[in-house]
Amino acid sequence: MAQIGTEQNPVRVAIVGAGPSGFYAAEHILKDGDVHAQVDLFDRLPTPFGLVRGGVAPDHPKIKSVIRVYEKTAARDGFRFFGNVKVGHDVEVEDLERLYHAIVFTVGCETDRRLGIPGEELPGSHAATAFVGWYNAHPDYAGEEFDLSCERAVVIGNGNVATDVARMLALTDHELRQTDTADHAIEMLDRSRVREVVVLGRRGPAQAAFTNPEVKELGEMEDADVVVDPADVELDPASREFIESDEADKTSRVNVEILREFAQRQPSGKRKRIVLRFLASPVEIQGDGKVEKIVIGRNELVDEGGTLRARDSGEREELECGLVLRSVGYTGIPIEGVPFDEGRGLILNEGGRVLDSHDAGHKVGHYAAGWIKRGPSGVIGTNKKDALETVRHLFSDIADGKLLAPESPDPAAVESLLAERGVRFVSFEDWEAIDQAEVGRGEPHGRPRVKFVRVEEMLETLGEKVSG
Ligand code: NAP
Q1: Residues 6+ apart with CB under 8 A from 334
Q2: Ligand 1 surroundings by CB, under 6 angstroms
């Protein structure tokens, strides 16, 4: 094979998934001066940016400003966006293998982890991921319905997604109307009768998964008091020893300080309450045809190989509620033709090189980056370093000639294939038109944008450009 990665023979890379890791992978590939590359970034949605658009809470607009960085990548020579193209449906992995030297999967972890308790499927019990998608106008969740006519909602898990959904349930109409929250969600949240949001952490305050600014923010809500029972912030001896030791990370130590300060507060009479509970696990969700109460088991912490884990003490408590949001983490969805580690819910890989099976070597030309490579952890920026590791492996494989040998490395071949299959792909220019239309819809209302919810609406905005 002629040397790939030269000006005459650029390496052609398909990246699947246009979230942060997809853009960071594209950036690392395209900014390298030595390797000549062309990157086609695919996404099943017409809109790029993954969880920055569909996950980050609407009242956190600063976090979304990272989009400017991705726009710079999109402006680089050799970059193309193919939105509205679902790999595994519109095109198969095998098709990509015929068209590219390498494929990088950056599809994230698209579904929720299950609790495995009775009543989890009752109407009124939802994955937090669905609630997040719904308020963020993600097309997949446009049809979801959340009954907000109850007084108490329970959020299970105490990571940053749990703080996001708790906050969204407690924001005032005034606060919501300044954001890009989906219109259907603003309307429902405005009429919500939820007055108390209880967040259940299965371990103690020293093991909470949320980070400092996110938990602190719960104490600064315009119309919601934060409530922590002083008994709940009394640390058990092992946690106290950990928090006072040099081993304790700053996040855990500061979390405990913030929670202790919350525990000293008196409710100030705000309309809503966010109650943070600890050592509390859901045991069963009960109700006659819909969620009516949750049975909570009291936990104690036990040391398992140096990690403090929750163990059921047998003590039970019942809490009436009409809505349960299960926020216990995300997991990946397998892609046909890509080896998957069922146990971890990730693409089987080593440092971003996809493996053929647990004890076999690299599936040549296949790579992964981001959550689908390492699991649903870290902040947006964590994916930059993660993608760099993968791209370094890709570059070293290019140097060693370990790539796919595409039949049609011509950049036009993919467009012909999509045209043949009648797929209306959305280019980055098309996306910019959708983006401008959304921003324009928001302007008269002083909102950053009013998002389109349905894919058809987005395509209609493009008129003949994609339909013709
Ligand atoms: P997460 O941080 O992993 O939190 C998951 C939570 O679920 C933990 O509290 C975990 O408790 C709990 N949990 C797991 N299984 C459980 C069970 N069977 N019963 C009860 N509780 C259970 O996940 P996440 O909140 O989905 O967030 C995903 C990632 O996105 C994180 O890295 C997060 O920081 C990031 N994120 C960041 C922001 C932000 O920066 N503002 C916003 C949203 C998300 P244990 O700790 O005991 O396992």
Answers
A1: 340, 342
A2: 115, 156-162, 164, 201-203, 207, 209, 214, 281, 327-330, 376-379
